[in-house]
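Proteins fold reproducibly. Look at a concrete instance:
___
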Amino acid sequence: MRAVLVSFLLLFLVSCTGEKVLEKAPIPKECLQWQEQRSPSLLDLSGIDFIDNQTGWIVGDIGQLDGKILKTTDGGNLWEEAASTTEFLSDIDFIDQLQGWAIGYAGTILKTEDGGKNWKPVRLGLNLETLNSLLFISSQEGWTIGANGLILHSSDGGITWNRVETKIEQDLWKIKFFRSPKTDQLIGWIVGEEGVVAKSEDGGKSWAKVETSVEEALFDVYLADEQTAWVVGEGGLLLKTIDGGLSWQKQKLATESLLRAVAFTDSERGFIIGSSGTILCTIDGGQNWQLMPFTRKISFQAMKILPSGRALAVGKRGVIASSW
């Protein structure tokens, strides 16, 4: 009798509204539940990197006196202070267990050769110079980008940096490279303010703007292969190209949050993080994205996918979260 009554009520709602009454879709088990990790910092965290499934580092803001560079050796379950810093650091990148670099405000670039215990400045820029993204593809060659179209390149392990001249004037937020397994070609992508996307097909020596037909700020790019890339930005913007940037498709998402990072663990499962505790997950290669619940409406700033497929995100007020 109860089942009949429920069926009648559903039929009544459909007939009155013309719309089906659907239960909220369950979270796919492949997405898993995100959980907040214990954090030793209340300062904003802006960059995260792992060299393997166990060893990782986090950088971020400074307090009244200094800030912390955090390190984990157990996959992110426990974070401890590895070193202190007197400058806001926006990103960090390690090439192996010992050698890494960090960037930040005032054009600061730091380098460590002992796993993050000690850091030495290799570049001090101008007070108004801000660096936002850092990437080394080997122990010798790396790039960093920042405000006002700044692109810097090093070919000697970060000891010296040379500016790459372009016609880009907008602030730049993220740089990524993809090496083709077929041709060994090194393809670079940069995203930034006012819908800026730039691409390099000569290993980062030169960069050309790519038309996207959007004006929103773009904060991250994920490269699946030579032709396929995902880009996220403000206002819940998600773009995809399958032809190397010649054309882009907007994808509708169930959020208008500022989206900070996008990454895939494999060809099917991926995550997007953003402001107000936004986490989205796909298990069908990005065709559909589902919002994930999180404990706090706090803004995420950066994300890292470990070789195991585990995802970690960091953000405002010291938040650290993990996909399991």
Summary: The chain is about 5% helix and 40% strand.
